[in-house]
User: Fold these one by one.
Assistant:
Number 1:
Amino acid sequence: MRILVGQGSCGIASGAKKTAAAFAEQIRAAEMDVPVDVTGCIGLCYLEPIVDIYDDNGEMTRYTKVTPDTAKLIFDAHVVGGTPYTPAMIPADGQAFLDKQTRVVMKNCGIINPERIEDYIASGGYRALSKAIRNMTADEICDVVLGSDLRGRGGGGFPTGKKWVQVKRQSEPVKYVVCNADEGDPGAFMDRSILEADPHSVLEGMIIAAKAIDARKGYIYARTEYPLAITRLQIAITQAKERGLLGDDILGSGFDFDIEIYQGAGAFVCGEETALMRSIEGRRGMPRPRPPFPAHKGLWEKPTILNNVETLCNVPQIMLHGGDWYASVGTATSKGTKVFAMSGDVNNIGLVEVPMGTPLRTLIYDIGGGIPKKRKFKGVQLGGPSGGCIPEHLLDTPVDYEEIAKVGAIMGSGGVIVMDENTCMVDIARFFMEFTQDESCGKCTPCRVGTRRILEILTRICEGKGKPEDIDTLRYLCDQINENSLCGLGKGAPNPVKSTLEHFLDEYEAHIYEKRCPAKVCKSLIRFEIIDGPCTGCGLCARNCPVNAISGERRQTHVIDPDICIKCGICEQLCPYDAIEIK
Amino acid sequence: MPVEAKKEQDVRLLVRTLVKEQGREKAELIPILHEINGEFGYISDDAIQELSQQMNIPTSHIYSVATFYRMLSTEPRGRHVIQFCESAPCHVAGGRQVWQKLQKELGLSKGETSADDKWTLLTTSCLGVCGVGPVMIIDNDIYGNVTPDQVPNILENYK
């Protein structure tokens, strides 16, 4: 018997360490010999902490939301008694969430121990490397990747094989492989999860890339915000070196390749490839114009392959099963699977890997379980701060690089933020603009000044001071910034505004002409009132109001003084009788 | 020796050790700044001057790098640093209320350090644990599914 406790960052944030400790303590007290092992995140974030118990016959029982108290109950029933503890077993929707996915990149996530290379090897790991290094020429490796039609998963969607061939063709003897693990899009966490749950798959992809272009040195540029991913990567690198899979004379082939982790220091723009390379060189991470592209002049002016985590993770699978196998999944222009990070107002939050071409509706309703609290769907933000908001009537759009772009969003790195009817789309556009404005590196004027101007206008609209000409000004600014910015961050910055203007214009108009926020979010456009009937005069709201804006006699209907009220919403949250109305 | 002088001596010693270990290549600048920031909580003027001498890089360049990145600070920080995730998934999951409660409880706004040097309140870019938002990190401890009510209890854990 073996107990596996999911300990990715999200599991740990939900208390997985305490759960694991509770199991260990029970085992010790009972003087039993059952190992409690670590695994990465399986992607069922909303059901963390997750515990898998493998019986001696190999059968696995999965438990979810396991607190230390539940751990004791599971221990008594299952570990000691031999009967599964049904109340904590994975619910049907959780099982369906996993069953409806196609896992290629995430096949090991939440299954193996990421800190043990033996687990990765036992699951077929490093077989692709062995095949590529021993039996294939550099051209053959490139051909297989070309044949798979794999495209960059970091957002750009550039064909990976083409990139490799371009670097391979350069006569310069020094070349680099860089893995972009600077996953900065808010709401995208698939790369973190892969790095924490299956770090060897990224290393294997990098070593194969190095073999294809004959590079000697590789870097993984990882975000400082992901400490656990960095720790597990470091362990993986050490173990791979001990086994002769990395470092000098890999697998006795005479090929040398080393990988170093480079920690970012917190700048969103460093996810842009030219900025990332400048950061490794010890400079401010600011983008430069392309061309020259990194394939010609990359890190320290040398030809460089720059691929993101998920892209590299696909490589070993493609080597093992062939380019045709990979290209048989997906749509005409987008092959393989894509991992989406689903969050926001959706029942089942987590990581979803599906074949390219899957409709958004399937993602949100079949797998995601729809919108909680019986609320209505309003929009879905795809592709992070450079992406766009997609409304209900376009939910049958298949996820495919080209189709998503047609409706005003981007595939991006695959962040899917679901928003219900209580979300104000003007506020969301303002929120994203605040982010890009803050993260703009300041190098080029359209992005630095343009995003600032957009933010000022959006803030004004949210405050009820919008002017009729604002909509045209916003459209003009969006086009200017998009056309004239230097890098992808600037070019994509107006997308949330552009797409909400296109799909949710009525909300902008309500704010500007009627001074009304239809979703009742924008503080300046709402007021809180106590309704006469339901209010029992209990005084709970008055006692908790931070500015003493509520008054009234006991057992009498209370009143809110609108001049004092700061619209914090605490009274509405606290009122047991739903007597507070937002108007 | 006065505290300030001792501190200066310590920081200069650390810089010299780090440069000796990691080398004078420009690529080592950010890793070394990380180490200094981790050890002292911020990168002081003394540290920048010593680094400049040891690595033969102008102070202006070091300062420009140190101020570019969010994780590096050139201002002293409190004993405990709170980083609250301000990204969209946490925002729509009730992050706004938690952020208000945090500010009220500590009496601090974004970027401020308390008078007793106990707390520094910061926001952070996405921590990638969106499944359990709202999320915050205090020092190295990560807290998920935070509600406004939990804030006082969480803060009490830190002395």
Number 2:
Amino acid sequence: MEGTVGSRYAFIYRRLITFFPTIFITITIIFFLVEIVPGDVAEVLAGPGASMLEVETLRKMLGLDLPAHERYFRFLSRLITGDLGKSLVTPLPVSKLILDSLPVTLTLAFSSMTWALLIGLPAGIISALKRNTKFDLLVSFGALMGISIPGFWLGLILILVFCVQLRLLPAAGFVNPLIDPINGFKYIILPSFTLGLILSAYIARITRSSLIEVMLQDYILTARAKGLSERIVIYRHALKNALIPVVTVVGFQFGGLLGGSIIVETIFSMAGMGKLLYTSILNRDYPVIEGVAITMVAIYIFLNMFVDLIYMYLDPRVRYG
Amino acid sequence: MVDFPIISPIWDFLKRLRKNPKGFLGFIILIIFVIMGLFADLIAPYDPNEIVPGDRLEPPSLRHLFGTDQYGRDIYSRVIHGARISIYVGLLSSIIALALGTTMGLLAGYYRKYIDETISRVVDILLAFPALLLAILIATILGPNLFNICISVGIVYTPQFARIVRAGVLSVREKEFVHAAIVAGDRDLTIMFSEILPNTIAPLIVQTSITFALAILTEAALSFLGLGIPPPTPAWGSMLYEARGYMEIAPWWTIAPGVAIFLAVLGFNMFGDGMRDILDPRLRIE
């Protein structure tokens, strides 16, 4: 027993220790990736009519005349103090742009996840319990369609139906639901449904297969043999174990929502991090691209670590040698 | 049945596929898409890039089954030609991911120690990026064209292959037949490819099919954002990128390319599911 607990702490410790090098390496990769993006910022910023001298002055002003490694160290030392630099296009610091857009993306992620769980979990559970019935077939096929539908197209079709044809919901923008719940809900419903529906397909699939597998285990047979009602067998014994892999998928997909936000926020013109990344790529606004990419990857890595730790907590059978 | 050594396993496989409705339907969809792509020039009634100013934004009719776009180009013909591009992207990206991932997985699993450590860290780092973000970053650097998009999509889906192969190698690395091959003096490469790799074929085939679907989706997303295959190439994603501004007056333009992406991806996913059922009895839940 002592040994198990010990190795568990050792695992947590190791997991936390690898967190920082991974972040550091990804930051370095992002810096140099963005560094080699073609296109001269100074030239873009100076405009088409600018003289060579103007471009050169601008380049010096932005610190772009320094060699790459020097800029990298400057970048790192600023980063440690939380300074992500200044946007080249707007006069705002990158950290402000990110902090302003973060609530939008988080609202989108949480409401998408709500949809996904609301649809995916019951669908997966019921279809596992009613295996090989019409309902099961329907869910299986629906889930297959869900993982195949392109998110951006689903978003466009929803806009086409609910905004252009029926004129029920706004097609673009964002209102914080904590400040104005009614309007906030109206604005978030379509974008979050777009991401949530696709996610629910993954959740339904994994829930179904996981629950089916658990229901075949001996201890379920034992529970039934003890004369427990089917309800208790399912809720107390089966679901508890069946949901472990679901937690992992939910955790990982939460990070995947960050990628999805790039598309959905662009389609629905929501001023979130995904949209920020997209516009900064179009504008070649390097500090913003770096800042957003680093923030997204950091959140993603953190979530993955968190999921690993939760997984270990939920499933003591898992050994981390 | 006469037994042909090469045809027999394929025939056998097709017979098993017939019994799996999902896989079989997926297979049929794929065949249709491949035919569409291969014979696009014969099937499409118009040149996909032919601009006809008099036919701008016409709704679907018998003359133009899916209508026309703002340049008067026939959307049906463009969708047919789009199949060729999607198949190209799916194929090339999957080959890149398969080749890179298999090599990494084989090296890591076979040599272990610091080689495994290094490769596993690289895989971890790649997996630390949300897929679409990584694809966008690489595609932006390489510049938007068909080949570069395939490279970026291929890199994004490499880690999954590396993990599958590495796990497969580790599970057979200490088996007698591998030791026998080592003792017999076979070269490392021979052992890796003819003794070890065949044991990971089943999950690799399934993963390739899934990657095909993911590659088509990712390329379409990139092109839709205007960061992928540039217009006027009739890629499905690029068509939606152009159609976005005309949703109110020409909704048909948005529908056809999206349905095409959806069906193609659905086909690969169904085929992948079917393959998993057939090839991996452990995952088959009866």
